[in-house]
Design a protein that fits this description.
The complex is a heterodimer of chains A (344) and B (263). Chain A has helices spanning 3-37, 45-53, 59-93, 105-119, 125-148, 157-179, 183-194, 201-229, 233-238, 243-265, 271-283, 287-311, 320-338. Chain A is mainly α and 344 residues long. The radius of gyration of chain B is 19 Å and the shape is globular. The termini of chain B are far apart. Classes of the chains: A mainly alpha (344), B alpha/beta (263). Chains A and B meet through α1, α8 and α9 of A and α2, β6, α3 and α4 of B.
């Protein structure tokens, strides 16, 4: 076969990938429509469109604009963030069971929130989230620094995982001890821990948006470097890649993405763990495709889980974190049983 | 001189493996480094490919210190294939070879028609076009090694360093890989440096042999100058007869050792 005969085949691979990307984007769009129209009070899509484009003072218009839209936006953002962060994390650690929480962001956010309530008198949702975000960032920088100790040229996947586990366990112990002392902190903590995108309001969306946007940009910049790194450090170096720089950009992206998502929505279990596996089945191992696929799948999954949570237990709602864990766990077991988790 | 090691001191941590070694690689040659296990040949190759930073001395690429050239620029002229590289499971041949284009891509321009034609050409040259969409882990050892070489080819460098490209391969596949290396050299005059274990294949496929022991170069030159009975004793502590290879006329090493007597 000559080189000219191979080129169309390579083209075919590329076209297929673009098609899948479009399908996933359509799935997110469908999720957005469902999330805006379905709930304890369902709104017809046309009325919803009217509420968005020419808002009036009717009850459904107000529900849509002040509750459903921010909730949907937060679902999209947190799903994007956790899906992408999970793909990065699994790529950098070459560990199929890695999730963004491995960097200590979840426990960092939890500890900072609880501490801010007890010692700094924080009392508004917006304040909790700022402190949670700061805690997530500090914890992951700490994990990164700890992972570098003793290593040459940046942390290795193993030292990162060890440092992350140690820091998380330590912060979890502190948080557990603190909430026993303070009832208000306990309530906030429990609510946050379940994971929800409801009742956050537009200001929370604006609060986390810049962090997630920056994280997504860094993630896409990191994708080619991660492709090179997945062939081993020697091959990556011979391809002209800076190893330490690539790891640092990757960790920064994971920190921004998962820190912002976790602070705003709580521990949305499983998104960062499962979604990259689903995405990988569609994209193969090329991170330039795996990362956007994971983001879109994450967004679609969070929206879908949230909508399911609104309809399964009327008149109440199940929090999205609970639904994700309920559908995620068996799903993950099935995934693991069907095809063994791949070596990365 | 394309590539040159000048008084390099190499090692890992406190352990020095190579001390004060000089070696020059001339343009358009196939050079093979031989020597017993632990003699420092892979370490030297890693230093030549800037995968290992010398503790002393310097490595020069086209007369310039290799560590002063941006690593991405080096990657456009010098390709290195480490020993027994590993790939993530499920990686297809086409994807692997495409990653060879890494140094030519920027984060805002990640794929071009140049990339595509380089990948197509590399696949064709290594005879892997029909296997392009197959996962690497479904291939035979020889095919897999060809796929890695194909990645290094797609990188488009005219200097190629290969660390034991024939490890874990049976004889037929070793020959297959070395024939490919030879073709690459003939087709485009690439400069190739390899580490090989098999002395007879090294003699057959190299223009120049470099024999190392204990971190030093003991002899360097054309195969018939280097592969002598005295050198084999000195470098490998091996008693052997060297006779002309009946096929190629290159030196053929026949170890003496103990053997069954023919009656």
């Amino acid at each position: 076969m000559s080189a000219t005969a191979v080129a169309p085949r390579l083209h075919g691979i590329r076209h297929r990938r673009i098609t899948v990307l479009a399908v996933l984007a359509a799935a997110v769009l469908a999720g957005v429509v469902l999330s805006i129209t379905i709930g304890s009070r369902s709104v017809a899509p046309l009325d919803a469109w009217h509420a968005l484009t020419a808002p009036g003072d009717t009850e459904s218009d107000i529900i849509i604009r002040s509750l459903r839209v921010p909730r949907t936006a937060l679902g999209v953002l947190s799903g994007l963030a956790l899906g992408v962060a999970g793909a990065l994390m699994q790529g950098h650690t070459r560990n199929p069971l890695a999730d963004p929480g491995l960097l200590g962001v979840t426990q960092g956010a939890a500890f900072a929130m609880v501490a801010s309530i007890m010692w700094l008198g924080a009392s508004s949702l917006l304040a909790y989230i700022w402190f949670g975000l700061a805690g997530a960032l500090v914890a992951s920088v700490g994990v990164f620094a700890l992972g570098m100790v003793g290593g040459r040229g940046g942390p290795t996947p193993v030292t990162l995982a060890l440092a992350g586990t140690a820091v998380s366990a330590f912060l979890y112990a502190l948080t557990s001890a603190l909430v026993l002392l303070d009832e208000q902190a306990m309530d906030v903590f429990r609510f946050w821990q379940a994971g929800s995108i409801a009742a956050r309001g537009p200001d929370v969306v604006w609060q986390v948006l810049p962090f997630i946007a920056a994280g997504l940009v860094l993630a896409m910049i990191n994708a080619p470097g991660l492709n090179a790194l997945s062939l081993g450090e020697d091959v990556a170096r011979s391809l002209g890649q800076h190893i330490a720089l690539t790891r640092t950009v990757g960790v920064a992206a994971v920190t921004l993405l998962s820190g912002a998502a976790v602070a705003a929505c709580g521990a949305l279990a499983f998104v960062g763990l499962i979604v990259p596996h689903l995405a990988r089945a569609l994209s193969g191992t090329d991170h330039r495709w795996l990362i956007p696929y994971s983001g879109l799948l994450g967004a679609a999954l969070v929206l879908l889980a949230d909508v399911v949570g609104r309809v399964v237990a009327p008149p109440g709602e199940l929090e999205v974190g609970v639904v994700l864990a309920l559908i995620g766990a068996p799903f993950f077991v099935a995934l693991v049983r069907r095809r063994k988790p791949v070596r990365l | 001189m394309r590539l040159q090691a000048a008084a390099v001191k190499l090692g890992y941590g406190d352990r020095t493996i190579v001390d004060g070694l000089d070696l020059g690689i001339e343009a358009g040659t196939v050079t093979t480094i031989i020597g017993p296990n632990g003699c420092g040949k892979s370490t030297l190759l890693r230093a030549l490919g800037r995968l290992l930073k010398p503790q002393g001395g310097e490595v020069l690429l086209d007369g310039k210190r290799i560590d002063r050239i941006p690593t991405r620029e080096v990657a456009k002229v010098l390709g290195v294939l480490p020993q027994a590289p590993t790939a993530p499971e499920g990686l297809t041949v086409a994807d692997l070879v495409a990653r060879g284009r890494h140094p030519h891509q920027t984060w805002y321009r990640q794929w071009s028609t140049d990339d595509e034609s380089a990948v197509a050409e590399a696949l064709t040259m290594t005879g892997l076009a029909d296997l392009a969409e197959r996962p690497l882990d479904e291939l035979s050892g020889g095919q897999r090694q060809r796929a890695w070489i194909s990645m290094a080819l797609a990188q488009g460098t005219d200097l190629l360093l290969l660390d034991e490209p024939t490890t874990f391969l049976d004889l037929a596949h070793q020959v297959e890989v070395l024939e490919l290396v030879r073709r690459l050299h003939h087709a485009s005059g690439r400069t190739i440096v390899m580490v090989l274990h098999d002395l007879n294949l090294a003699a057959r496929y190299a223009d120049r042999l470099v024999a190392m022991r204990g971190g030093r170069v003991i002899a360097a030159g054309e195969p018939h100058e280097v592969l002598t009975e005295e050198l084999l004793r000195e470098v490998f502590e091996l008693d052997a007869k060297v006779i002309p290879d009946p096929v190629a006329g290159t030196p053929l090493v026949v170890p003496i050792g103990t053997h069954r007597q023919s009656s």
